[in-house]
């Protein structure tokens, strides 16, 4: 199996096109055409993680966080990032990261937190914008079913819990081919009228190349008439953070104790208690202060995230319980998710879970 084939599998879980604009995801080091001998899955790629990959004969590291986040002007080994890059290149080890692509995935980082806290009735906290597109095409009516089914087969027409969704309008199309044309229906140089079906169908933006490939292969015309637009509709299964409900409401102290034990953190920093039960909970792995207002708007009783600053806690404004469990702690189960996903997909070589604790923060 090639590196690019492993990446294609990972994109089934979290397409890179949904990464945030500030992020640096994808293959950071290595050759997409290299043959994979083993995969090591980690939260962070540190120098000792690269050593672990060398020891375990893994030439691909799948790392949630990207080791190269901003541009490198020099690689002299003076920083931990430069040393990782040097060592990985020296030992022909590829490094791949899906970071915010996995943050935005319905089955990604935040889904893992929800699983651990046993949250039900989940929804996306901050849906990502402009992720749904619409295709309109015009097909001879006798070929409409064939074209629709080809589009359905590659993922078009999925809306929430429904699939094979489309809208169809019957009408009459006209066209006249010039001398260079080779019309399938009608004669060149003559205006032809054909009973056609206008097919309207939505799709997720990362599927566009597959959608167009299927359209061109299934459509009978020499020149395929189509248009694609980007919709403002929200994708209910794509975006940052999640909101869910506990099976039973808990008082605040019991909830915080449950949170501390479940997420295996040595410290929970929280805002003032409000003496009200906690039932609806918002979560966002990693640095989530930007989502405090969204959690309040969603009607959450508590918001769990990390990296809150001093003044962020004032933003609770006696309406929500804010709980900072630590950056590493909020994302610690992400590598288990990636490891489990790849183990199910790949059986012909080793997919290993790194045993290195990469948390840079210690508590006294």
Automatic annotation (TrEMBL):
Homohexamer. Keywords: Metal-binding. GO terms for molecular function: metal ion binding. This is GTP cyclohydrolase 1 type 2 homolog. NCBIfam families: YbgI_SA1388 (TIGR00486). One of its GO terms (cellular component) is cytoplasm. A divalent metal cation binds at residues 65, 103, 327, 331. Pfam families: DUF34_NIF3. Gene3D superfamilies: 3.30.70.120, NIF3 (NGG1p interacting factor 3)-like (3.40.1390.30). The keyword Iron does not apply. PANTHER family: GTP CYCLOHYDROLASE 1 TYPE 2 HOMOLOG, NGG1 INTERACTING FACTOR 3. InterPro entries: DUF34/NIF3, DUF34/NIF3_bac, DUF34/NIF3_sf, N-reg_PII/ATP_PRibTrfase_C. Belongs to the GTP cyclohydrolase I type 2/NIF3 family. It comes from the Bacteria.
């Amino acid at each position: 199996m090639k590196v690019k084939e492993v990446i294609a599998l990972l994109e089934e879980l979290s397409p890179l096109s949904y990464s945030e604009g500030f992020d640096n995801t994808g293959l950071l080091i290595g050759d997409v055409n290299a043959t994979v001998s083993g995969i090591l899955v980690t939260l962070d790629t540190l120098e000792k993680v690269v050593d672990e990959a060398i020891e375990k004969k893994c030439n691909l590291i799948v790392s949630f966080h990207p080791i190269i986040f901003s541009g490198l002007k020099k690689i002299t080994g003076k920083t931990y990032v430069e040393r990782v890059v040097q060592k990985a290149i020296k030992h022909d080890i590829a490094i791949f990261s899906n970071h915010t692509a996995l943050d935005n995935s319905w089955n990604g980082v935040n889904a893992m937190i929800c699983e651990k806290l046993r949250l039900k009735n989940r929804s996306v906290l901050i849906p990502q914008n402009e992720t749904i597109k619409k295709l309109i095409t015009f097909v001879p009516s006798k070929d409409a079913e064939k074209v629709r089914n080809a589009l359905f087969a590659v993922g078009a027409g999925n809306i929430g819990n429904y699939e094979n969704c489309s809208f169809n309008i019957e009408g009459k199309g006209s066209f006249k081919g010039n001398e260079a044309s080779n019309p399938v229906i009608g004669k060149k140089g003559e205006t032809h009228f054909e009973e056609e079906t206008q097919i309207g169908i939505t799709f997720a933006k990362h599927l566009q190349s597959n959608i167009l490939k299927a359209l061109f292969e299934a459509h009978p015309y020499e020149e395929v008439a189509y248009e694609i637009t980007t919709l403002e509709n929200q994708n209910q299964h794509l975006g940052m953070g999640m909101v869910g409900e506990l099976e039973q409401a808990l008082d605040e102290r019991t909830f915080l104790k449950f949170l501390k034990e479940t997420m295996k953190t040595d410290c929970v920093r929280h805002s003032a208690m409000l003496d009200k039960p906690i039932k609806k909970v918002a979560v966002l792995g990693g640095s989530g202060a930007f989502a405090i207002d969204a959690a309040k708007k969603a009607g959450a009783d508590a918001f769990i995230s990390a990296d809150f600053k001093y003044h962020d806690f004032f933003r609770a404004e006696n309406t929500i319980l804010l709980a900072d469990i630590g950056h590493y702690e909020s994302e610690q189960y992400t590598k288990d998710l990636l490891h489990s996903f790849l183990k199910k997909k790949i059986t012909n070589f080793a997919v290993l879970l790194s045993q290195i604790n990469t948390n840079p923060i210690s508590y006294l």
